[in-house]
């Protein structure tokens, strides 16, 4: 199975901060990576597919980059509605696997 | 508007069975692969399995943790997805989400999720 490792597991930040979350795959997944945002008690929401393709309706302050085994999700200027947990997920090989999540908290 | 509504969750004893349903609307259900993903209380996301569409003969994939115990099926005439769960274990306790898989070229990702239904396995 492909292991997905996210860091940090928790991140404390302030409104307006630039935030970067890292996701590493245990083997190359090319660009077959998605990022999801999940708020408490809610379903995950797709932010980015194919490592860097922003979904329609997702604010431009979100961006994704990387390929192979190392990927990043960046929020250029953190907004109050961005405090949530973020997950990366590879969809190249079964079983599909998720990172452990990064909780973005208010500093 | 794409909508996915899960139902059928509840409390079940270890060793018991439960069938979850996911009612889809707002898109051509028969075109899409559909998946189940679960989330244990306070934990991360775990993929459960996938059913492909008619064009791919409704073939399925499963996570090792549920293979042989869970069965995914679908009824395109009812725009519905199902998860039959047998021989349930306490570690199957989770919120179960159905997720639509994009009808995109290349490898496919989840583009919409339902709100989930809670399954609790406990004596």
Record the SSE blueprint.
The complex is a heterodimer of chains A (107) and B (123).
Chain A (H helix, E strand, L loop, with lengths): L3 E4 L2 E4 L5 E7 L7 E6 L6 E5 L3 E2 L7 E6 L2 E6 L9 E6 L6 E2 L3 E5 L1
Chain B lengths: L2 E5 L2 E3 L5 E8 L8 E6 L5 E7 L8 E3 L7 E6 L4 E6 L8 E8 L8 E4 L3 E5 L2
Parallel strand pairs in B: 2-11
Antiparallel strand pairs in B: 1-3, 3-8, 4-5, 4-9, 5-6, 7-8, 9-10, 9-11
If you had to describe this structure to a student in words, what would you say it looks like?
The complex is a heterodimer of chains A (107) and B (123). Chain A has 107 residues and is mainly β. Helix content of chain A is 0%, strand content 50%. Chain A has no helices and eleven strands. In chain A, strand 4 (33-38) and strand 5 (45-49) form a beta hairpin. The radius of gyration of chain A is 13 Å and the shape is globular. Chain B has 123 residues and is mostly beta strands. Helices cover 0% and strands 50% of the residues of chain B. In chain B, the strands form two sheets. In chain B, strands 2, 4, 5, 6, 9, 10 and 11 form a seven-stranded mixed sheet that branches. In chain B, a hairpin with an 8-residue loop joins strand 9 and strand 10 (110-113). Chain B starts with a strand and ends with a strand. The A-B interface holds A 32, 34, 36, 38, 42-46, 49-50, 55, 87, 89, 91-92, 94-101 and B 35, 44-47, 50, 61, 63-64, 97, 102, 106-116.
Task: Kindly list the characteristics that best describe this protein.
heterodimer, A: 107 residues, mainly beta, 7-stranded mixed beta sheet, 4-stranded antiparallel beta sheet, B: 123 residues, 50% strand
H-E string of chain A: EEEEEEEEEEE
Which whole number gives the mean pLDDT of chain A?
Answer: 97
CA radius of gyration of chain A is 13 Å
List the total number of helices of chain B.
Answer: 0
The helix content of chain A is under 10%
Query: Biggest sheet of chain A: strands, sense, closure?
Result: 7 strands, mixed
Biggest sheet layout of chain B: 7 strands, mixed
Low-confidence stretches of chain A: none
Strand content of chain A: over 45%
Q: Tell me which oligomeric state these chains represent.
A: heterodimer
Tell me the distance between the termini of chain B. 40 Å
- Overall geometry of chain B comes to globular
**Spatial separation of the terminal alpha carbons of chain A:** 35 Å
* Structure annotation, total helices of chain A: 0
Q: What is the radius of gyration of chain B computed over CA atoms, rounded to a whole number of angstroms?
A: 14 Å
Structural class of chain A: mainly beta
Low-confidence stretches of chain B: none
Largest interface: A-B, 24 and 22 residues
Instruction: Report the principal-axis shape of chain A.
Output: globular
């Amino acid at each position: 199975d492909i292991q997905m490792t996210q860091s940090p597991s928790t991140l404390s930040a302030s409104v307006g901060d630039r935030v970067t979350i890292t996701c590493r795959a245990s083997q190359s997944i090319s660009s077959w990576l998605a990022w999801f945002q999940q708020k408490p008690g809610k379903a995950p929401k797709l932010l980015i597919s194919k490592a860097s393709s922003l979904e329609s309706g997702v604010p431009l302050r979100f961006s994704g980059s990387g390929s192979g085994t190392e990927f990043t999700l960046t929020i250029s200027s953190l907004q109050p509605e961005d405090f949530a947990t973020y997950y990366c997920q590879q969809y190249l090989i079964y079983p599909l696997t998720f990172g452990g999540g990064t909780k973005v908290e208010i500093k | 508007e794409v909508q996915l509504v899960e139902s059928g969750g509840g409390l079940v004893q270890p060793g018991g069975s439960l069938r979850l349903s996911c009612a889809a609307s707002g898109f051509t259900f028969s075109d899409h692969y559909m998946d189940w993903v679960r989330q244990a209380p306070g934990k991360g996301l775990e993929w459960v399995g996938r059913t492909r569409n008619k064009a791919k003969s409704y073939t399925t994939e499963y996570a090792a943790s549920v293979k042989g115990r869970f069965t995914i099926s679908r009824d395109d005439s009812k725009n519905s997805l199902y998860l039959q769960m047998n021989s349930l274990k306490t570690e199957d306790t989770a919120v179960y989400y159905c997720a639509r898989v994009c009808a995109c070229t290349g490898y496919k990702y989840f583009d919409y999720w339902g709100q989930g239904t809670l399954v609790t396995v406990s004596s």
